[in-house]
Amino acid sequence: MECSNLNDIIKSSKNILIFSHINPDGDTLGSMCALYSAVLKNYKKKCDMAAISKIPDIYSFLPHISEVKNIDEIDKSREYDLVINVDVASIERICDGKILFDKAKNTVNIDHHKTNNAYANLNIINPDASSTGEVLFDCFRKMDLNIDIDCATCLYTAILTDTGSFRFDNTKEKTFECASKLVEIGVKPSEIYKKVYESDSKTLVMFQAYCISKAKFLEDDKIAYTVVYKKDMEKYSANDECMEGLTEKLRAIVTTRVAFVAKEMKSGATKISMRSKFADVAKICEVFGGGGHKFASGCTIKAPVEDAVKRVLAEIKTREI
Ligand SMILES: [Mn+2]
Fold first, then answer.
1. What is the total count of domains within the chain?
2. 158: CA distance to ligand 1 center in Å?
3. Are residues 154 and 247 in the same domain?
4. 94 C-alpha vs ligand 1 centroid, how far in Å?
5. What separation in Å is there between the alpha carbon of 80 and the centre of ligand 1?
6. What strand order describes the sheet that includes 258-264?
7. Residue 293's CATH number
8. How many angstroms separate the Cα of 188 from the Cα of each of 150, 171, 308?
9. Domain that holds residue 162
10. 184 and 71, same structural domain?
11. In a structure prediction context, what are the per-residue pLDDT tens digits for the chain, which is 321 residues long?
12. What's this model's pTM, rounded to 2 decimal places?
């Protein structure tokens, strides 16, 4: 029902803008480009696409990604007929884009986050779906849209990345059903796998090897963590993209139950990225004003790294992990 409303809204809109969220991941970018592609081919309309912050280089293979503009390049005085947010759990995640969202004649919010508070005129939210890509694919099928290889590639990438290659606990029978249909359309899983997971830069690999080599282990190796200083980043010319997957590498050790990376930020505060196998680390990060998912959360602590690490360790030790 909601999806047929989307059909009517797109038909009656001349100017459409699609937003992805800040610090974009494969789900928000894949969903944005998939929607762009579907609208272009089925309604013969060109949408604008906006990114709030830098798009990681690995996603440069996504069809239509080169047409995405940075929010700074978009005229804030414009009034769009329709603004659609994809994978944007809360309106703050489009930052300045909110100006354009609030002015739009119509707004749509397509998402899968449990915490999404349905902030648009039309909200298509399915918390049981693995990803926004899966929500969108369902919707396209209900709308009877033609899904071509470009669109399928984007949807597959969205589902693949948000499920950690079909490994995380959001991977359900339905997820494989969607993936199967996308492969039927022509998606080559091994090709997308190579583009997403075997495209690390030499800098990233060497930098992460260094970070792991100085990891510390506590409580019979149940807790694993490493500290990343500004000077480490400088030494390796590493950027934030080089942090991607680092905490997961510490969690992947058989004895690890909780892993975290403490990063010294330019401001002097400490950014904590935490992962677990069993414990609800969202609860631990909430103590420090952060949050996220049960097994993957984060927070920022306004304290120097040594101090922040002490506080985080003390908090972990009060819990059953
Ligand atoms: Mn997502």
1. 2
2. 8
3. no
4. 14
5. 25
6. 216-218, 223-228, 258-264, 270-276, 296-301, 291-292
7. 3.10.310.30
8. 12, 19, 44
9. 2-197
10. yes
11. 589 899 999 999 999 999 999 999 999 999 999 999 999 999 999 999 999 999 999 999 999 999 999 999 999 999 999 999 999 999 999 999 999 999 999 999 999 998 899 999 999 999 999 999 999 999 999 999 999 999 999 999 999 999 999 998 899 999 999 999 999 999 999 999 999 999 999 999 999 999 999 999 999 999 999 999 999 999 999 998 899 999 999 999 999 999 999 999 999 999 999 999 999 999 999 999 998 788 989 999 999 999 999 999 999 999 999
12. 0.88
Q: Rounded CA gap, 123 and 136, in Å?
A: 12
Give residue 57's identity as a one-letter amino acid code: D
Q: Which among 197, 222, 243 is the end of a domain?
A: 197
User: DSSP character for 252?
Assistant: T
- Rounded CA separation 5/280 (Å): 38
132 C-alpha to ligand 1 centroid (Å): 5
Q: How far is the CA of 317 from the centre of ligand 1 (A)?
A: 31
Cα 224 to middle of ligand 1, angstroms: 27
Distance 298 CA to ligand 1 centre (A): 16
Q: Are 128 and 12 within one domain?
A: yes
**Which residues does residue 85 pair with via DSSP β-bridges, in sequence order?**
19, 109
C-alpha 99 to ligand 1 mean position (Å): 23
> How far, in Å, is the centroid of ligand 1 from the Cα of 44?
27
